[in-house]
Amino acid sequence: MAHCVTKIQLSISCTDLLDKDIGSKSDPLCVVLQSVGDGKWAEMARTEKINNCQSPEFSTKPIIDYYFEKVQSIKFGIYDIDNKSVNLSDDDYLGGFECTLGQIVSNRTLKGPLELKKGKLAGKGTITIIAEEIKDTRVVNFDVEARNLDKKDFLGKSDPFLEFFKQGDGGTWQLVYRSEVIKNNLNPCWKKFSVPLQTFCGGDFNKPIKVTVSDKDDNSSTDLIGEFTCDTTKLLAAKEQVVEFDCIHPQKKQKKKSYKNSGVVRVKSCKIDVEYSFLDYVMGGCQINFTVGIDFTGSNGDPKSPDSLHYISPTGVNEYLTAIWCVGTVVQDYDADKQFPAFGFGAQIPPNFQVSHEFALNFNASNPYCAGVQGVVDAYRQALPQVRLYGPTNFSPIINHVSRFAMSAAQQKNASQYFVLLIITDGEITDLNDTRNAIVAASKLPMSIIIIGVGSADFKAMEFLDGDNGALKSSSGEAAARDIVQFVPFRQFQNAPKEALSQAVLAEVPKQLVTYFKLLGLTPIKPPEKSTA
């Protein structure tokens, strides 16, 4: 049995990437994959996309469990992102780099050329990976704004964003946080943000920290507005009161004797808190409630036909059953009673054969619970010959059903329950606006939604619901409080080990759970005991 030695955080940057765009520079993104054996790879994380940049430094820092006794093969893929789809097959591949986690850890900083394929260099581009062990669970929480920034845009004001750097080995500056861009504003107030204390300053409160404010122009290079250097101790003075720093542009200061600043950065709040992990909440008593929703619309095909997605093969499986098993066998370990509600939608159901978008698989509306994953599988098998596949494909009724239970749990104002809804479907959503509204409402509740697409349909609507490319908005324009949807097409995992599918669809649930309880300021019911070491 392998035991995780520690968690490793990876800082990723590239230089001199290939330029695939005409009239502008590439928009790179890095995907981190881990080998799952037999030449297959599973995605572990991806960074943000950086527009018009040949030498990106990514602020997203993937965290990987490190096992001393295992060879963990890691692949870094750099893509030029030209569309909003999460599927990278339509994007230009700028090159990749393959190594082991052990190589990264032993070198601390690993640098290498990008390859288009094994043994064939991309011709341009290098990647640098820096490894840091995560040993401290504390985070630094910030609330920052600026006043009277310099105007940088000819026809507007400035589009300012904020960056924090810590001083690394040899005096180099390493990016630890990059804010969002606020358009056309000389008095920006950025979103509150958190940075792990170890990422921020390595636990050294006297380590130099550089803060820069820059103007972002989508069609040209970034312009520095100003910067200042301090340390964590000075920033923490904002725990009790607002602390102001002059934002200085070095060249302007040299040229003008009367120069004062290019604006003022105001740290409204800076304080250190303990960051509770997913395991802290689960081991502290949080139960994960698992619900399954299955698509019984006519587009699946006649279950008696081998061409149908509901056809059960001679070996006793189909894509629906495989998805239930893969996800359910992982989630059931976190639910004490292992009683799972299971529903179908889009079918005509007995005895009157009216269309239903929220019927219990066991046809017992007052008690839709199934005993474990096997119970869900048995209910599905028994329901299949009794229902008539029909339509349309409506998601909102079952999302709203689970939301009602999550709402009840939320009213307890503790970290005792979290809900995971698995929807398995074959096609496009008919009630897209109602589904958007249901998801935005559910984003305020202790709930995550996993959507697995089976078959070969176009799943663009599902990708839209997945909030990886920005916050999902309701039909009225209200943004989701947090990203709670994870969509995965089953076809990408048809020839991969079963654990690869469960890893992909469940990868975001721990972060989503922690984010929810953190937003509400809820600690584990039984917080972990502080180490006396």
A few lines on this structure:
By secondary structure, the protein is an alpha+beta fold.
Provide a descriptive summary of the structure in words:
This protein is an alpha+beta fold and 533 residues long. It folds into three domains: 6-134, C2 domain (Immunoglobulin-like, Sandwich); 138-274, Sandwich (Immunoglobulin-like); 289-519, Rossmann fold (3-Layer(aba) Sandwich), CATH 3.40.50.410. 20% of the residues lie in helices and 34% in strands. The strands form six sheets. Strands 17, 18, 21, 22, 24, 25 and 26 form a seven-stranded mixed beta sheet that branches. The protein has a four-stranded antiparallel beta sheet with strand order 4-1-8-7, covered by helices on one side. A hairpin with a 5-residue loop joins strand 10 (160-167) and strand 11. The chain is globular. The relative contact order is 0.09.
Name a few traits of the molecule.
12 helices; Immunoglobulin-like; globular; alpha+beta; 26 strands; 7-stranded mixed sheet; Rossmann fold; 533 residues
Q: What is the C-alpha radius of gyration, as a whole number of Å?
A: 25 Å
The averaged pLDDT comes out at 89
| Biggest β-sheet description | 7 strands, mixed
- Poorly predicted sequence stretches spanning 5 or more consecutive residues: none
Domains, number: 3
Number of helices: 12
**CATH class membership of the largest domain:** Alpha Beta
Gross CATH architecture of the largest domain: 3-Layer(aba) Sandwich
Give the name of the CATH superfamily of the largest domain: von Willebrand factor, type A domain
**Gross geometry:** globular
- Note the quaternary state here: single chain
Number of β-strand runs: 26
User: Could you say what the CATH topology of the largest domain is called?
Assistant: Rossmann fold
Distance between the termini: 27 Å
How much of the sequence is in beta strands? 25-35%
Backbone structural class: alpha+beta
**Percent range for helical residues?**
10-25%
